[in-house]
What does this fold into?
Amino acid sequence: MDFNDNASQAEWRKEVATFLAAEKPKSDPDATPQEMMERGRSMMKEWRGKLSAKGWVAPAWPKEYGGAGLGVMEQFIMNEEFAEARAMNVGGMGTSMIGPTIIIHGNDEQKQEHLGAILRGEVQWCQGYSEPGSGSDLASLQTRAVRDGDDFVINGQKIWTSGAHNADRMFMLARTDPDAPKHRGITYFLMDMKSPGVTVRPLINLAGGHMFNEVFFEDVRVPARNVLGEINRGWYIGTTTLDFERSSIGNAVGQRQTLEYYMKFWKENQGTAATGSASTKAKDEFADRWIEAAVAKMLSYVVITIQSNGRVPNHEASIAKLFNTELSQRIARTAMKMTGTNGLLLGGKAPMRGRAPQSYMQTLSSTIAGGTSEVQRNIVATRGLGLPRA
It folds into this structure.
């Protein structure tokens, strides 16, 4: 594998880096994850306008939908430079998950309706997959969609729905044939969150933040034209969406940057009250985490190589997702060890303003969201290694 950019890619990388140096909103490296999220929302509109004017919200999308018509490798380079510069990616689930899925599986009407709106920031999306009894075994979901003339009537519940309280639309899976084998009776819907019968309730996470929600559906009518792909074949479209979700270079760069932040603090405060005697045990762990962060980056390169060759990554994306999310927890544990008993503190007087314990609590969910580590290992075993199902 050649890790160097060719001439055109190098020029593109320079163009992106120059733009970011001049235009990106300023970030606070000491901000807590919750502060980063709140500050990001306040600056999103202006930043999106700058990117949209250049077609850079999703540069690999066709120009007719507001993209720049570039290749997936150019988009990867842009994502990498954005991550290195700590610049906000404004597309959210619209550009990273549902947009690419619509491009592959949507009809012309759906592409015209949704893709441009995503890039212009007119619509925010959330994902309706997990249910109280259907998390790791997503195909056992019980939310029902029954055909009634030109509509489907949906009843049921979704849980751990990120951003549902701010979303305009949801891409969701519902069971349309209860008598079919569980993977074959599911349909993929594009649903308006303002539809009568939709109720969103907050779920506050361990760190005190509001990102997750539970969503209830009571006789919610969804037009049949909002079915993505074939009826009862939604499971296979849904897995395409998951493959895109698990394929981000930003995660790998972010891991290294988080590690660099902790290492800088450790070097400046080793043996002081901020770290205590526990800091002397952190050095070897930092070396391990640094190597693992490099591995995470290489796994992202594998995924983008597959995408650049016109294929959708499958078990390779699961490997990257599995490694990245478990690495985030190991980095958080290393930070907690570095700060010793001080790592239990939160607030302004805590080391790093309590970033270590907040990250420790928030990364608890990272190996659950987007498919648990157990699910990822099963995908790697069966689809990657060809092992039989248990």
